[in-house]
Inverse folding.
C-alpha cells in the first residue's frame, strides 16, 4: 500500500473483517484511531444474496432451506452456515467494541444505499470529514439494471453501473423459511439497533 501523504486518507475494503474474530485487535495494533465503515442490510436478504452468489459459482449447491436449517422438522437455524452467521451483526459488533469506541463507526444502510445513494454517501463524507463532493447529481436510476448507477465516474465520460455479480435476481425461497429466519434474527437485530443507536427497520 502506498504511503498516505498529508491531506490524503487511506481506505481499505475487506467485508470479512467485520466477522473475523482477530480483525479488531489487529487493526487496533496497526492504528487504533482508524475510522470504520460497515454496510449492513437486512440479514435475511443478505443471507439469500450470499447464497445467490455461491450458487452462481457452484450450481450444484444444495437448496437454501437445507443449508439454513439444522433440522427441517424442528426448524432450528444453522448458525454455523456463514450466510446465516454473518448477519448476526450484534455479535460481530460486540467483538469490535472491545477495541474501538462506537464513535469510530459509521453504519451505512445497504437498503438506503440503493434507495438514496447520495444521501448515504453524504453521511459517509461527513463521517470522514470530507467536503460533500458526491451528491444527487452523480447518480441516476438505470431502469435496465434496476439500480442506481454513476452518471460519469472519475476518468470516464460514460455512465457506469456495478457489474453483473451485483444486483442479481434472487431465487425464490419458501416463505415459511424466510419467516423462520426473520424470527430468528429479530432479537439480534434489536440488539444491534440498541448498540449502534440506529433503527434499520428490518422487521
Ligand atoms: N448501485 C447498485 N447496483 C447494483 N447492486 C447494488 C447497488 N447498490 C447496492 N447494491 C446491492 O449490493 C449487493 C452486492 O453487494 P456485496 O455485498 O456483494 O458487495 S461486496 O462484494 O461486499 O462489495 C447487491 O446484492 P444482490 O442484489 O444480492 O446482488 C445489491 O443489492
Amino acid at each position: 500500500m502506498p504511503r498516505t501523504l498529508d491531506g490524503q486518507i487511506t481506505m481499505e475494503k475487506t467485508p470479512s473483517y467485520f466477522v473475523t474474530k482477530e480483525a479488531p485487535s489487529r487493526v487496533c495494533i496497526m492504528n487504533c484511531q482508524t475510522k470504520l465503515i460497515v454496510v449492513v442490510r437486512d440479514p435475511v436478504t443478505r443471507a439469500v444474496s450470499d447464497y445467490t452468489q455461491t450458487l452462481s459459482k457452484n450450481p450444484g449447491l444444495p437448496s437454501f432451506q437445507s443449508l439454513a436449517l439444522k433440522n427441517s422438522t424442528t426448524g432450528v437455524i444453522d448458525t454455523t452456515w456463514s450466510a446465516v452467521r454473518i448477519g448476526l451483526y450484534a455479535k460481530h459488533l460486540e467483538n469490535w467494541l472491545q477495541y474501538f469506541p462506537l464513535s469510530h463507526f459509521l453504519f451505512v444502510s445497504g437498503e438506503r444505499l440503493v434507495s438514496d445513494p447520495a444521501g448515504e454517501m453524504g453521511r459517509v463524507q461527513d463521517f470522514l470529514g470530507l467536503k460533500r463532493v458526491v451528491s444527487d447529481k452523480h447518480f441516476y436510476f438505470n431502469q435496465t439494471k434496476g439500480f442506481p448507477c454513476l452518471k460519469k465516474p472519475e476518468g470516464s465520460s460514460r455512465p457506469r453501473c456495478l457489474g453483473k455479480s451485483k444486483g442479481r435476481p434472487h431465487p425464490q425461497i419458501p416463505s415459511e423459511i424466510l419467516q423462520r429466519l426473520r424470527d430468528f434474527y429479530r432479537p439480534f437485530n434489536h440488539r444491534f439497533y440498541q448498540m449502534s443507536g440506529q433503527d434499520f427497520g428490518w422487521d
The two ends are 41 Å apart (CA to CA). The chain has one domain: 15-167+183-196. The pocket of PPS is lined by residues 15, 49, 52, 113-114, 147-148, 162, 166-168 (CB under 6 Å). The mean pLDDT is 95.
